[in-house]
Amino acid sequence: MGITAVVRTIREHETPAFLALLCDVFDLNPARAENVFRSEPFFDLDRKWALFEGERMVSCLTTVPLLFANFRGIGIAGVATRKRDRCKGFATMLLRHVLKESDTRGEGAALLFARNEALYRRAGFETLDTVVSVALDPMEERHDWTTLTIEETQTRYAAWARQDHTRLLRDEQRWRFWSWSMKIVMATRDSYVVCEPFKVREMLPAYEGLPLSQEQEFLGLKSMAEMLGIPTTGAKQEMLLMGRAFPFVPQMFMTDQF
Length: 258
Known about the structure:
elongated, 258 residues, 12-stranded mixed beta sheet, alpha+beta
């Protein structure tokens, strides 16, 4: 008799197997991954899904909540299948089950970032946008840039997000996630830019140059780069943003990447 595959959220004693599967598939350092795993602000066993054959964990993924003006959805991350079990339909089976369960929770619209487009198309996803990286030229020296506190950044972002129903809203949990890694927010009276080492993943409301002297790179959705006025000629495609039951192309920054 064949073994029937079962999909469910994991239990506490199964977290080592879940983490080991992620480390194996994504070539992560186990010690560092273990520290990050539980400290991550969206950590929730009820959002850690796995497909089992008997007692063996074969495939896994994580969901995170997404909030927009008119509805809730999920982001899907860390889709991983054991190397010897690939090309057998396990990931598609896992995704379809999770999406069905998410529908019952009222958050059936889903987003994910992908490089393997074909895999996710089989589970009902379509490509909505591309993630690109593009070099940003340093600006001439200006002296009107100041540093924003997180509270000031929250106020500016919230004002922007409320202007359009396609923009991702940030609740308290998402702001904890946003603050989880080191960021410096530099601002003028009307705009700000979130600076990380050699990367810019968020700026509002438009590209005005950078408040730093060194070259940096914008990493984000192509549609967002165009909205900000960042030239995308010669941009490098990094991955795809795919959606399932998503009625629009979301306006969001890679500071919110799941």
